[in-house]
Amino acid sequence: MPRLLSFAVLLATWWIGSLLAGDAKLPPPPTVFATMIAEARSGDLFFHLGVTLARVALAFTLAMSVGAAIGYLMGRVRLADRLGDPWLILLLNLPALVVIVLAYIWAGLTEVAAIAAIAINKLPTAVVTVREGARALDASLDEMATVFALPRWKKFRHVILPQLSPYIAAAARSGLSLVWKIVLVAELLGRPNGVGFEIGVAFQLFDIPRLLAYSLSFAAVVLLIETLLVQPFEARASRWRPRAA
Amino acid sequence: MRLEVDITGKTFMNAAGEQHDVIAGVSFALDAGEVGVLVGPSGCGKSTMLRILAGLDHDFQGRVSRPVSARIGFVFQEPRLLPWRSVEENVRLVVPLVNDAKLSALFEILELDTHRNHFPGELSLGLARRVALARAFAIEPEFLILDEPLASLDAALAARLRDQIAMLVDGRPVITLLVTHDVDDAVRLGDRLFLLSPRPARILADIPIRAPRSQRGDAEVAAIKLDIMQRINGGPTGRDAS
User: What spatial distance separates the first Cα and last Cα of chain B, rounded to whole Å?
Assistant: First the structure.
């Protein structure tokens, strides 16, 4: 209920805003929804959303798996940490735009360049978060696993991974929002499809209803994935924790 | 099967970079079926010694020989359970092939049967300790290490658990090493008591108890306790070392 209410407040604010600013700058909700339905009917909306989602999924998976592995290594092995740290600081502070432009210049306006650029933007935050988790591993549980001669894989799965999972969840959460933002820029700059491309076109034509139609559909998809996928996963991973009152 | 310990020295560096001697010289041997008890003031290096014996700490002078690849059951001073696994999963994790009936019997003895599906965070410290005991017993260890296993349990339960430990130890040829500062537990469970000095630890006395555990009457226990108390408190060695 409170969610619905806050959604209604958003719609009302939008409508009032459009009355004040005029249709040309901020079209009212019905105009935008009509555009959305038209785009959905023609299939364009789903095509572009699908393309963007596929890029997000690929770049996110790539960045999370590579980032978690590097982060774990850096948290456990001092030498790896020393060697990797300058690179990490560089990548962390490199603007997304620079990475995307350089990727397109070096690898051409290709799918690989786009996905790599998005993944590289997300990678360092995953590394930093998982490294923190690997540093905080409980040495006393490690000793317990050693004394009771747990096999390596079992130890990783039952002793180490559960300790890392809140950090991995945090990295996934913050990383996903980063990827949502960056994927549109990458599409705008060098892809012939996807939500970012459509928004670029709408911008050039000053087609505000279309711009809003795509932005809002995209936001709806993000919201859906967050509530249906990310939050249940987090709840499951932390089910052993005593519930907060 | 035999445990031979000859630790001639163990030092460690604290955060400020100062060197501390923890163990000065400890040597003893234990055979399978024997219960050795380390009794000493807190902070005298008992836990450090157990970590060395369990193979967790290799940075010491001297020699420890224990049966190769012996199954070790370790009850740590704090329970060290996996908070994200249930009580039963915690035990099954270290003994994947455990016999269900045996596990049930063990849970019943330790009065854990109603807590099988609880997470460690939902248990009191006393219960968590019992789970740690169940885990160490379940693997049917050849070398059992107990670091203050009965601390913070109520007297009745502690006595029952003590009997359970005694039963397990008598039933199988297991080398057992118990650390405690409860002299009563030490006398009732041990076959040999090693009295330790304050840090750096040395063995002050090696006291064998010849009567079988089941036949130690209250009077006998009291007599041995008196003897030990005198050695700890009244003996000249206890004084000048502190």
Answer: 36
Query: Which tokens in the block code for residue B39?
Result: 């009794």
Tokens in use for B190? 């041990």
Which of A137, A141, A142, A148 would best serve as a mutation to test chain B binding (most B beta carbons within 10 A)? A148
pLDDT band at B65 (very low <50, low <70, confident <90, very high): confident
SS3 A108: coil
Predicted complex ipTM:
0.84
Q: Nearest Cα to B60, choosing from B48, B42, B73?
A: B48
* Distances in whole angstroms, Cα of residue B31 to Cα of each of A58, B46, B133, B177: 60, 20, 22, 11
Interface check B173 vs A, CB under 8 A: no
CB-based contact, B66 to chain A, within 8 Å: no
What's the CA gap between B153 and B175, in Å, rounded? 24
Give the distance from residue B95's alpha carbon to the nearest chain A alpha carbon, in angstroms. 9
pLDDT (0 to 100) of residue B242: 37
Instruction: A58-62: list long-range contacts, CB under 8 Å, 24+ apart.
Output: A58/A115, A58/A119, A59/A115, A59/A116, A59/A118, A59/A119, A59/A122, A59/A179, A59/A183, A60/A119, A60/A122, A60/A172, A60/A175, A60/A176, A60/A179, A62/A115, A62/A119
Whether A27 contacts A209, CB under 8 Å: yes
DSSP B45: S
Q: For B152, left (φ over 0), alpha (ψ -120 to 50), or beta?
A: left
CA–CA distance from A107 to each of A56, A66, A185, B151 (Å)? 19, 20, 17, 66
B205 beta partners? B195
Length in residues, chain A: 245
The 10 Å Cβ neighbour count of residue A36 is 20
Is A196 within 8 Å of A183 (Cβ atoms)?
A: yes
List pLDDT tens digits, range A50-70. 999 999 999 999 999 999 999
Could you please state the CATH topology (level 3) that the domain comprising A42-237 is classified under: MetI-like fold (1.10.3720)
Domain boundaries defined on chain A: 42-237
B117 touches chain A (CB under 8 A): no
Report the Cα B119 to chain-centroid distance in Å.
25
Query: Which residues of chain A are within 8 Å of residue B54 when distances are taken between CB atoms?
Result: 147
Compute the distance between CA of residue B201 and CA of residue B44 in angstroms, rounded to an integer.
Answer: 6
Q: Which of B51, B69, B94, B124 to probe the A interface (max A CBs under 10 A)? A: B94
Chain segment B140-168, per-residue pLDDT in tens? 888 999 998 888 778 888 888 888 888 87
CA distances from B6 to A145, B9, B165, B209 (A): 26, 9, 26, 22
Give the pLDDT band of residue B46 (cuts 50, 70, 90): confident
